[in-house]
Amino acid sequence: MKMNREDNELPFACNMKAMNAEQRQRYDVLAKQLQMTTQEIKELPNGYAFRLPSEPSAVQDAAEWIIYERLCCPFFDFGLEVERDGGAMWLRVTGREGVKPFIRSEFGI
User: Fold this and answer.
1) What is the CATH number of domain 19-107?
2) How far, in Å, CA of 1 to CA of 6, rounded?
3) Rounded to 10 degrees, what is the CA torsion of 5, 71, 100, 12?
4) pLDDT: is 39 or 73 the higher one?
5) Distance from the CA of 5 to the CA of which of 11, 75, 77, 90 falls in 20 to 30 A?
């Protein structure tokens, strides 16, 4: 019997035990930083995009946040795009059908 990707998909539920205490502490700092520096939020068909400053430290923080967020929420897709000529950075958090209400709740949108 062939299984579809949908048959193996995880539920929309965070695994709070996926990070140890040190990782959770760092994640909390990064999440707060991203929230404070978000300049714009765009709704996408399958999630949201967050415009962030494109300074090198912000790019590093966003990439590190993705590493931790993937541990507890493996059902998200992530994209990080930095526009040319000093343009904006966009962090996309997307997923399969039904993920948008979860993102709104988790990210306080």
Assistant:
1) 3.30.1360
2) 14
3) 60
4) 39
5) 90
- For the chain, how many helices (H) and strands (E)? 4, 4
- Report the sign of the C-alpha dihedral through residues 43, 9, 81, 109, in that order: positive
Domain boundaries, the chain: 19-107
**Within a 10 A sphere around the Cβ of 70, how many other Cβ atoms?**
14
Task: For residue 77, give the nearest of 46, 53, 105, 50 by alpha carbon.
Answer: 46
pLDDT bucket at 4, cuts 50 / 70 / 90:
very low
3-state secondary structure of 7: helix
H or E, element range at 29: helix 21-37
Read off the pLDDT of residues 8-57 as tens digits, 9 standing for 90 and up.
666 666 777 888 999 999 999 999 999 999 999 999 999 999 999 989 99
CA gyration radius for the chain? Answer: 15
Average pLDDT across the chain, whole number: 87
